[in-house]
Amino acid sequence: MDLSNCTRPAYFLLVGLSTFGGMESMMYANVFLLYLLSLMGNGLIIMMVIVDRHLQKPMYFFLSNLSFIDIGHTTSFIPKLLLNYLSASNAICFYCCVIQLCFYFLFGVTEFFIITLISLDRYVAICHPLRYATIMTSGVCLKLAIGAWFGGFISIVYQVVMITKLPYCTSNIINHFFCDAGPVLKIAGGDTHVIETLGFLVSVVVIMSSLFFTLISYLFIIFTILQMPTTSRQQRAFSTCASHLIVVFILYGSVFFVYLRPTVKNSSFRVMKVVSVVYTMITPVLNPFIYTIRNKEVKEAVQKMIGRKIPALLCVRRNKN
């Protein structure tokens, strides 16, 4: 096919979630509920870390970064998904698709780095408690967080630029509910081998290195827990680690299935869309509850805030009366 006279499409059409068994209304209601829960849970974490000085610690600093990422990750595509459903139009402009793709992968890749930093922070806190304050200083934490965000940006920027320069002559229909790299490359003309190979290598390096350091950190944590003198402390620590690892396995397992494949030209995205729902919508809801809201310090901070707000509201009502 001659691509020399190919013009860039003004818009793409997203297939969306309409192929899921004819239960579109229920599916979109569930998507809206998951998005709302994600905003509320992660927003609460960010607010509590900002207003409560007892939560201004390295662990909660990284967790607030994770919450911000989860909000940004879901916001990069869910509002457009819901808007398309309400307007009965699945169109998305070309540059809107590129922006969505860029932010989706920026937040997604950075999340792996932040999860690794959270596991390393827990490793230092549990395995080297006496040196924790001197190792995890505010300056070190800030540099690590900046490094995570910069690493996420560097990992995706070149691929996004290359995708924008591809011709799209054969079709403008993206078989997904957002602008993901695989479905976009599948309808692209020209040679996409370099982009696919680069994306695969970046996925392998980022995902596998992140998973390696995360699992090694929790492995050392488990060994330290086994040496604790009391059974009650061991049970509490194991409960926390087990819940963290469940989220890690859900996230990495679904991402392995979707992104650790060397080619997308002959891929079928029906199953991939179902798996994508897990790590794009479910894990952002689980993260604040698993990592933060279950913590004793956060529960106490929330109770204190509620304890201050309720008397203040009652006082205002009395004054009005």
List the helices and strands and how they pair.
Elements: E1 11-14, H1 24-51, H2 58-75, H3 78-87, E2 91-93, H4 94-127, H5 132-135, H6 138-164, E3 173-174, H7 181-186, H8 193-226, H9 231-259, H10 270-293, H11 296-320
Helix pairs in contact: 1-2, 1-10, 2-4, 2-10, 4-6, 4-8, 6-8, 8-9, 9-10
Task: Characterize the structure shown.
InterPro entries: GPCR_Rhodpsn, GPCR_Rhodpsn_7TM, Olfact_rcpt, Olfact_rcpt_6C-like. The chain crosses the membrane at residues 27-51, 98-120, 132-158, 200-226, 238-259, 271-291. This is Olfactory receptor. Belongs to the G-protein coupled receptor 1 family. It comes from Pantherophis guttatus. The chain is mainly α. The protein is 74% helix and 3% strand. It has 11 helices and 3 strands; from the N terminus they run E-H-H-H-E-H-H-H-E-H-H-H-H-H. The protein has helices at residues 24-51, 58-75, 78-87, 94-127, 132-135, 138-164, 181-186, 193-226, 231-259, 270-293, 296-320, and strands at residues 11-14, 91-93, 173-174. A 3-stranded mixed sheet has the order 2-1-3. The chain is globular. 36% of the residues are buried. The model has no long low-confidence stretch (mean pLDDT 82).
Descriptive labels:
single chain, 321 residues, mainly alpha, 3-stranded mixed sheet, G protein-coupled receptor activity
Whole-number average pLDDT?
A: 82
Order of strands across the widest beta sheet? 2-1-3
Percent of residues in beta strands? under 5%
Q: What integer value in Å does the Rg equal? A: 22 Å
Low-confidence stretches: none
Oligomeric form: single chain
> Which structural class do you get from the secondary structure elements?
mainly alpha
In which range does the helix fraction lie? over 70%
Protein name: Olfactory receptor
Keywords: Cell membrane, G-protein coupled receptor, Membrane, Olfaction, Receptor, Sensory transduction, Transducer, Transmembrane, Transmembrane helix
Family: Belongs to the G-protein coupled receptor 1 family.
Subcellular location: Cell membrane
